Amino acid sequence: MANGAHWMRRFRPVHRALKWIRRTLWRALAEGFWECARIFFANWENVGPPLRTFSAYQALRNGWPRIQGRILLHDQGHPEVRDGSLLVKCGFEQYAYQPWPVFWSEHSEVRLVAQSLACLTGPKEVLLESVYGHLRMRIDPACRYLRLPAPVRLTGAWTSLVSRWVPTGDVPNYTHWLMDALPRLGVLSEFPPETGILVPGTLAPYQEESLELLGLLDRCRFTRETHFQVERYFFSPPTSELLCYNPYAVHFLRRVFLPKADPAYNSPRRFFIKRVGRARPLQNADEVERFFQGLGWAVIDTETLTFAREIQLFASAEAVCGLAGSGLTNTVFCPPGCRVINLAPDFLLDGWLDWIVQVVGADYTFQVLPTGYVQEIRLPIPWLQAALRQAGERL
């Protein structure tokens, strides 16, 4: 579907009309439908989406005795936001979602529902932090269902890495696995030692490896079901709003994974990240790869590496360059002072890398690549040379 929508950009007037219908009329109809369902089925416990919310953070903050848990951080701080940065240009306002607390809470006899396995703490009542708060809850699958299958009973203690962005039904995106899922394990030592971990039903090899490196793979339950009744649920929420400022996650990933880097991998110190098998590929990839090889840089396809070797690659890097994408999220493992060059196509502007490099202390620059309405990604060599010079590279 995404590739078809991209192909339609060749017919600009038609594409603009269809895009307006999808973003306005269709969205309005969908929102109206779910709001009607929420009200119409308000008195049906097992039919229709949740109607109310409950905040575990506020309960812990105010000392409500029915909720046990611990608040680690009330506030993670905030990024430095510069005029003209991608944090500003992308329009996602990723700098505005603070404070974002880090905590955990214990719940008895709760239900986990939909592909996000969001927590229902009572009839028609969803745990707010399990659906990323008020701003995101209406797009969460747990707030958009008509009827759930019969629940699967889970006895004992459980926690979960599943969420809206790490769903049960799909292999999670690389960046969301690193930034949304794995940091939820930072409080695992405070749970009972027999606590099981719910993970998506299908994981990529590197995702299984990341859990194996932590010694946790045997505790994981690969999960495709969308309705559980859990005896004891230890809720560790995502530590940030999507890809917003999240130094807690960066520090956690560096602390637990940098010692797991593969020392046997003789990784290059300067490299360009190759794009392989993705939508909207680099049109002049061969030309660009020859250019970097001529500079003495390596060209790396990170998908061919084990996770331990990816960690080693970035932990030993002196300079990294790549098109904006999940591969650059590995800069969480870069040493302070590493030069990071982000080549951002104008239709893929996102500020997540701006704040990650701030936490890491990398030497960061970005260049916005014009692509035109058809969004064809091509890196003209003169443009690329200028981008590298601006980043401080001597060519």
**Structural domain tally:** 3
Cα shape: globular
The topology string of helices and strands comes to HHEHEHEEEEHEHEEHEHEHEEHEH
Mean of the pLDDT scores?
93
Query: Which structural class fits the helix and strand makeup?
Result: alpha/beta
Tally of contiguous helical segments: 11
Summarize the structure.
By secondary structure, the protein is of the alpha/beta class. The protein has eleven helices and 14 strands. The protein is globular, with a radius of gyration of 22 Å.
Structure characteristics:
11 helices; 395 residues; nine-stranded mixed sheet; alpha/beta; Rossmann fold; 14 strands; 21% strand; five-stranded parallel sheet
Account of the 3D structure:
This protein is 28% helix and 21% strand. The protein contains eleven helices and 14 strands. It has helices at residues 2-7, 12-40, 56-61, 86-89, 174-181, 205-213, 247-257, 285-294, 307-315, 352-360, 381-390; strands at 52-54, 68-73, 102-113, 118-122, 125-127, 152-160, 196-200, 220-223, 227-235, 270-273, 298-300, 319-323, 339-345, 363-369. Strands 1, 2, 3, 4, 5, 6, 7, 8 and 9 form a nine-stranded mixed β-sheet that branches. A five-stranded parallel β-sheet has the order 11-10-12-13-14, sandwiched between helices. The longest helix has 29 residues, at 12-40. The mean pLDDT is 93.
